[in-house]
Amino acid sequence: MDANLYKQRSIKAAHAIEALKKNGFEAALVPSIESLPKLVTSLIPDGSSIGLGGSVSLVESGVLEAVRKGPYKLIDRYEKGLSKEQLHQRLREGLLSDVFLTSTNAITLNGELYNVDGTSNRTAAMLFGPEKVIVVASASKIVSNLAEAIVRVKTICAPANAIRLDCPTFCASSGSCIKRSFSPENLMCLPAGACESTICSNAVIMGHQKAAGRITVLICLEDLGY
Asked: How far apart are CA 131 and CA 170, in angstroms?
């Protein structure tokens, strides 16, 4: 990565981390992708059950492979050959795991996490259930505020994920949402019923946390996921 961009991301990430900590999150800066697997596994006690949110970042970082090899009870949603019913059961089991691993769609400089889901097992587990949540995210996901977070989902996260999941959404075919800009009148930015195949069913803003320290946010300065 260009040294100047790396420095700029470091400064921005430091501000986000400070705000996250004020909101009751644990947060730390991670200089490289290579550091992530060892760091994440160091935070998970041996024997822990681990649930997974749908996340390209966990795969690209090597974190998924590290927990597969570790001394854990992994509830592996990515195991090949799972039936629809088996996958559904594993998603349910993840809601009561000891540790839940996931990423996030956006991190604001106000210390918030913003996520939009379809099935919503990811957002459900982030909010309540698992004793500990570890969020792995690139500093490229840091935005100034919630308005920018909403636009990021509509123009980057949703289209890329819809293509990955082979969902016949408007954004998968056009590269962006039906309504790309932030709308204070409608935070979902979609008219009712406008996209029947949408993966943007539920939007969650996570601000000040009552269970301080339950969620750890690891911000990597290199690019990961969408």
From this structure: 37
Token code pair at residue 166: 């082979």
Residues 108-134 have a mean pLDDT of 98
* CATH at residue 39: 3.40.50.10420
Is position 134 within any domain?
yes
H or E segment and range at residue 30: strand 26-30
Give pLDDT, residue 180. 81
**Residue 188 placed within a domain:** no
Pairwise CA distance, residues 153 & 144, whole Å = 14
Q: Tokens representing 117?
A: 């889901």
Q: Number of structural domains, the chain?
A: 1
Of 118, 117, 123, give the one whose Cα is nearest residue 100: 123
Task: Give φ, ψ of 16 to 5 degrees.
Answer: -65, -40
Number of other CB atoms surrounding residue 145 within 10 Å: 14
Residue 58 lies in a domain: yes
